[in-house]
Amino acid sequence: MQNNLFQDQKFRGILYQTLVVGFFALGLYFVINTTAYNLEKRNIATGFGFLNNPAGFDISFSPFLDFKSTDTHLKVYFVGVLNTLLVSFCGCIAATILGFIVGIIRLSSNWLLSRIAYIYVEFTRNTPLLLQIILWYAILIQLPRIKQAPQIWETFYISNRGLFGPKPIFLDGSNIVILSLVLAFVISFFVARWAKKRQDTTGQQFPTFTTNLSIIVFLPLVIFFIMGSPISLEYPILKGFNFKGGAVIRPEFIAMFLALSIYTAAFISETVRSGILSVTKGQREASGALGLKKNWIMRLIIIPQALRVIVPPLTSQYLNLTKNSSLGIAVGYADLVHGFGGISLNQTGQAIECMAITMATYLLISLTISFFMNIYNRSIQFKEK
Amino acid sequence: MKKLLSIFAVLAFAFSANAGTLDDVKNRGFLKCGVTTGLIGFAAPDDAGNWAGFDVDVCRAVAAAIFGDSSKVEFTTTTGKSRFPTLASGEIDMLARNTTWTLSRDVNLGFEFVGVNYYDGQGFMIPSALGVDDATGLDGATVCIQTGTTTELNLADFFRANGIGYEALPIETNDEARENLFAGRCDVYTTDASGLSATRAQADDPDKWVVLPNIISKEPLGPLVRHGDHQWGDVVRWSLNTMIIAEELGVSSSNVDDSKGSNIPEVLRLLGVEGGYGEMLELSNDFAYNIIKQVGNYSESFDRNIGPDTPLGIGRNLNALWTDGGILYAPPFR
């Protein structure tokens, strides 16, 4: 046995790892040190004080907060976060629904349908998302101009400045109507629980869906008329350059929403397809032999088992969609990167601070999504009894 | 990505700041000049792919001064946001890109404006069919605006001061803003009046667009270099001044050869016949001759690119010589 330290595997392992960590730390030190040195040399102020300075510019799209140019950069940040969350949330829901539908169609025995789904998946998955966003925006921009906006019942208007519709105005007593809606949901939750319990014990079925739907629709409706219609609608009216009043969905948002959800749905549909295929053929045949209806087999036997395979990759698709929403700048959608990470950064020159805050925010959003998806994932995993 | 660039730019700054830019350029054999992504008249590639325009001429003048050959320039396109990191990182030697000279850019960003080649101001362009003849009549309009610019802040101030509302649509490049304006996504496009004229010239029917008379800001546009390299700053400054002085003295590309026999002392000094002014800049003594011969004087460049006979049709106005009622003025060549 040679008494050479370098031939000792354990020593070598420790040596190499120490070297790697050492070089990494050295590199990090160098980057931070150079940055700090140059910032100081160029007299660039560091710190987060700029967050309380007035922004001085306006934001195109702020559906939740009322933003003025005298508001601070901190508010620019919150507007950006809300806009990012809005398009990500809507995108995730739409992508999930579309992805499930396409994934199931893809496995359909109908040749034409499954071919169409196949072409859709391959086309959207294999072209850059940025181009798809720009394509959708270019199409939306070609909609009629605001003065020639086609109307539906003088309530909805379609133009290249967005889709305009009525906005609900809440008057006195409207909170009772909203309360009754919440109450209706609570009641229907207990009805569903009771019905399930009864079915489990007696085998008798109860028309849960129709019952609950009528509770949710009619209870608030009745209260609404009892209270003397406390919710009215404000209609958009073309006045001067733009529609005044009413609600509007901007083309920038629509382009982002369509592109993100259609792009991500293609990936989700493949996940769904693999999940369904992972359920053994015997399960389907056995449930068929028991005489279950075709859509029952899907809903009660296949999907619950497939979900165990689908959910983990689905989580990463949600994360992708959220991160991809940072491409909003391509069409002027005022998301976090466009507003705070772009305009604020540019006007204040606080590049490192703005970038650090923006990245930390994306990290936080991603970790939150993962956290809830992991809880959901645990709840659908096979429970051993 | 561009924001990352700016961080790297800060990092890279240390390695580039102290090098003598003039020597670097001479050794490299060509000048690296930053221009816009395309603004007709100021900087845009022509049909043959050669860059041409009023700002491009400043780059060409510097190349002519250094190499005696105005074609030795490599052009880099920059957006409103990427222009400063690109210059700070040393990726380009100078920036000639309708950039407004402001205190914070001059001091805080670490640049040096070497002069003003175009006195501009922020204006508004609207479809003439709107029938608005003053910007205060734009209450409630949707305004397209290039992000990362001083215009963004001026716009908010103007509407606030006049107590009228608007919707801003911040957009990345001039081209995108133009598309949105022509499609009717916004009613108004606001940027420097020169940029508006350039955009108007690109419309299918320029008569359908009108630039409002309101000028809401001072925008002195000029070339800039990195702060700290005074020798290089001097070269760019006097290349620009040469064009202005040449117009003042009536020396143009067509009569520059004859002017060498002039009896006006300043013309002789300018063309390097007398004195050693080029050597002071570490250039050849005929550097000004080369600029005038190959690029022309200020008025030639103006008339060729943006003047009344071009699609842009911009008058000299503020940019006329101080002797002609404008404020264009260059220090004496002596």
Give the topology, please.
The complex is a heterodimer of chains A (385) and B (334).
Chain A: H1 9-41, H2 73-106, H3 111-125, H4 129-141, E1 151-152, E2 156-159, E3 162-165, E4 167-170, H5 174-202, H6 208-226, E5 231-234, E6 237-239, E7 242-244, E8 247-249, H7 251-278, H8 281-289, H9 294-324, H10 336-348, H11 351-380
Antiparallel strand pairs in A: 1-2, 2-3, 3-8, 4-5, 6-7
Chain B: H1 2-16, H2 21-28, E1 31-35, E2 44-45, E3 51-52, H3 54-67, E4 73-77, H4 83-88, E5 94-95, H5 103-107, E6 111-113, E7 118-120, E8 122-127, E9 141-146, H6 150-161, E10 166-171, H7 174-183, E11 188-192, H8 193-201, E12 209-211, E13 219-221, E14 224-226, H9 230-249, H10 256-259, H11 265-270, H12 277-280, H13 287-294, H14 298-305
Helix pairs in contact in B: 3-9, 3-13, 9-13
The CATH topology label of the largest domain in chain A is MetI-like fold
Helix amount of chain A, in percent?
Answer: 55-70%
Termini separation of chain B comes to 47 Å
CATH class identity of the largest domain in chain B: Alpha Beta
Note the main sheet of chain A: 4 strands, antiparallel
Please mark out the parts of chain A with pLDDT under 50 across 5 or more consecutive residues, or reply none: none
Number of domains of chain A: 2
Total domains of chain B: 2
Biggest sheet features of chain B: 5 strands, mixed
CATH architecture annotation name of the largest domain in chain A: Orthogonal Bundle
Instruction: Summarize the amount of helix of chain B as a percent range.
Output: 25-40%
Using DSSP, what is the number of strands of chain B?
Answer: 14
Strand sequence of the main sheet of chain B, in spatial order?
10-9-11-8-12
Biggest interface and which pair forms it?
A: A-B, 45 and 43 residues
Q: Strands of the largest sheet of chain A, in order across it?
A: 1-2-3-8
Average residue-wise pLDDT of chain B: 86
Shape of chain A: globular
Individual helix count of chain B: 14
Task: Indicate the mean pLDDT of chain A.
Answer: 85
